[in-house]
Amino acid sequence: MKFRVFSIISLLCTLLLILCTFSPLLAATFTVDIAADDADAHDTSPGDGICSDALSSCTLRAAIEEANATAAPDVILFADTFLNARVNLAASEGPLPTITSQVIILGNSIDAYNDSASNLSDAPPQFTIDGSNLTNGSGLVFSGNAASNSIVFALSIVNFPGDGIQMLLDADDIDIDLCYIGVNPDGTAGGLGLNGIVALNSDEHKIGKRASGSDLVGLGNLISGNGGDGIRFLNSNNNDIFGNWIGIGASGTGDRGNDSHGIYITGDGNDIGSVINGEAAGNYIAGNDSGGVSVTGDDNTFKANTLGKGPTGGFIDSGLDGIAVFGELNVIGGLTVLAGNEIVEHSGAGIRLGVVGGTAGHNNFVLNNRLGSAGALFPLLLATNGEGILVNGNNNVINDNVVMNSSDEGADPGYFGNAITVRGSSSSINGNQIGYMNNLQGVNAEPNKNGILVFGNGHSIGSMLNPNTVAGNTGLGIYTRGMDNNVSYNFVGVTADNQRLGNNGFGVQMEHQGGGLIVNANYIGDNGSDGLRLETPNNTLDVTQNVIGELPNGLPAGNQGSGVYIVGGELIDVAGNLIAHNVLDGIRLVNDSNGVAMFQNSIYSNGQEGIDLGNDGVTVNDAGDFDEGDNRLQNTPVIEEVIFDETISPRTLTLRYRVDSSDDVNASTYPLFIDFYWNPADENSQGRYFIGTDFNYTTPNAIKTVVFDFESSATGGYLTATALDQDRNTSEFASQVLFGEIDLIFKNSFE
């Protein structure tokens, strides 16, 4: 009889034989030579080391009974002459005996088994255990610690009213590979009434491919068409689930989903998919009604899995969430692209952490995953999720993911087509590519509904070394609601390589009540409404060093609304920003926004005003400044005279100006800070280049003289100014005043 098995099994058997030399009971090998089951199929003398039923044959039932009778690790082989053999368990005899001792069951010992196959489609099992005649029970059941370290290879287990394989009550470290669970060897349906593979209170199982030294061996299991979960592990820890096809047909495509989850686990330290020595060992999981993977526990990893399509291609509609995790310190994806998961065609979220009102997901990592597929050039390749990444928890890291084509069309209720939605506090969201794809044919929108939505406090969105790019979405780019959130170094509506691919709504929208906020060093351009919209009563907020309306290379990329639109805001600093080419105002304040300090910005080439207090165009100064409105309608400086001295080095500008603004409690708080700006061309109500500040204007309506170095090589231009009082209220731009001789290039508007 041939004994043809993988090299790892040969090694294992050798080790077992060595171990058995020190045991009072020697391991035995039993060869099943008949696919039969009836009253005569029982072993006649369990414990004698011989598998023999009443008819002197070795049935599978008799082999298990004999193996249970010894403490040694026995081996069950199958006659090498079997070809598509099937044992239909007899109703009168019930399920096979529970396995209570270590046993190695090698269906791949059959001659007809294709042990040189490279995928499951080409390696159907040659021995099937069929439970069609039974009214209860499961296929193979391992129970107790003595059954630990068992192996099941290359069996088809179908049509049981219960589960396919159970591992119970400290039956640990069981390897299952090369099996069809719920599928006949010819690929036809043979689903189980409940779950495919079950573990309860047992740990460290290896389901599918496994590591042998630095390599991977095995092909995985096909687990499809069952009435419950494909894999269901409860209170089960430190398992490896690699390389399986779950919910997919035997050809590697087609919907043969399990009626519940593909994988459902409660436990810690489980690895679902992996990368070993540069080789991916992820699972293909698709078509399952309740989602791909659901895990409650800590320290679990999910790597290199593909959800929503089969290994031979073709998208497969899948229910609810791709990967749902409830717990802490779990890693979904990894530090390399190879470790990331690909998730498409789920009616829920591609990745979910925690649930509102239930178990949260704290301190987890979501790295280098790809959610949704591109279809702008080839619509047949378009695949969506109902939501990209959905987070309910604190202190999560969501980095370097690609999220495309999330859509609420066809999604389950509660999923809205957004790329990333975070509820909780103190999460970090960096390096994500959201809403577009850059390929050989150029940059194309692959839109989600909205880009990044954050609800809660203390979140960080973007970093200097790892910015997010959020462009091409049908709604807004980035939205935050909460306190102490930081939105920095992102590309919103534009890309780092100077592509214009705006979001249809706001670039960045922030709605907050209290707390300190930061919006720093973002590129925000080409969006369908305002670049940055702040609805931020009672906040301390810094808006600094952003470029709003230009590409990184300096070319125009204006937003269709205002550059910065502030609604009812207080205690906001808008400083050091470039705000240009926007269709409406550079900065617009409405709804009694007060304490908005705007200084040292470069504001130019916007379609309306540089700064507009009240959305009503230029606000005319009133005597004494006794009026109310946005920023108290702070009066602008009046520049009386500009003297340009080109004869000295550095050249100087001597400015005489005044501010008609009382220091009364109903007007301005003194001293005022006066910022001066130079416009090379005639651009009234805007200020392109900041040239200096007078920090000590102390007397209302007094004419004051200040002198600034003029370091440009230009021969002239226009001077304008803004006034900022001690309550942080900045005025609009002053009427500009001509000095020197305007350069011809600017006269002709060739900027």
Characterise the protein shown here.
By secondary structure, this protein is mainly beta. Among the domains are: 1-319; 634-747, Immunoglobulin-like (Sandwich), CATH 2.60.40. It is built from three helices and 67 strands. It has a 19-stranded parallel beta sheet, with helices on one face. The chain has an 18-stranded parallel beta sheet, with no helix packed on it.
Question: TL;DR of this structure?
Answer:
The chain is mostly beta strands. It contains three helices and 67 strands.
Q: Radius of gyration over alpha carbons?
A: 35 Å
Strand content: 25-35%
Q: What is the mean predicted local confidence, pLDDT? A: 93
End-to-end CA span: 88 Å
Which structural class best describes the helix and strand composition? Answer: mainly beta
Strand element count = 67
Could you name the ranges where pLDDT drops below 50 across 5 or more consecutive residues? Answer: 1-24, 745-751
Biggest sheet details: 19 strands, parallel
Present the secondary structure layout.
Elements: H1 7-20, E1 29-32, H2 60-68, E2 74-78, E3 85-88, E4 103-106, E5 127-130, E6 140-143, E7 151-153, E8 156-158, E9 165-168, E10 175-177, E11 180-181, E12 197-200, E13 206-208, E14 210-212, E15 215-217, E16 222-223, E17 231-234, E18 240-242, E19 245-246, E20 263-266, E21 271-272, E22 275-276, E23 279-280, E24 284-285, E25 293-296, E26 301-302, E27 306-307, E28 323-326, E29 331-333, E30 342-343, E31 346-353, E32 365-367, E33 370-371, E34 385-392, E35 397-399, E36 402-403, E37 420-425, E38 428-430, E39 433-434, E40 436-439, E41 442-445, E42 452-457, E43 460-461, E44 469-470, E45 478-481, E46 486-488, E47 491-492, E48 508-511, E49 516-520, E50 523-524, E51 532-535, E52 540-544, E53 547-548, E54 564-567, E55 570-575, E56 578-580, E57 587-590, E58 594-599, E59 602-604, E60 611-613, E61 638-645, E62 652-658, E63 672-679, E64 689-697, E65 704-709, E66 716-724, E67 737-740, H3 744-747
Parallel strand pairs: 1-2, 2-4, 3-5, 4-7, 5-8, 6-9, 7-10, 8-11, 9-12, 10-13, 11-16, 12-17, 13-18, 16-19, 17-20, 18-21, 19-24, 20-25, 21-26, 24-27, 25-28, 26-29, 27-30, 28-31, 29-32, 30-33, 31-34, 32-35, 33-36, 34-37, 35-38, 36-39, 37-42, 38-43, 39-44, 42-45, 43-46, 44-47, 45-48, 46-49, ...
Antiparallel strand pairs: 14-15, 22-23, 40-41, 61-62, 62-65, 63-64, 63-66, 66-67
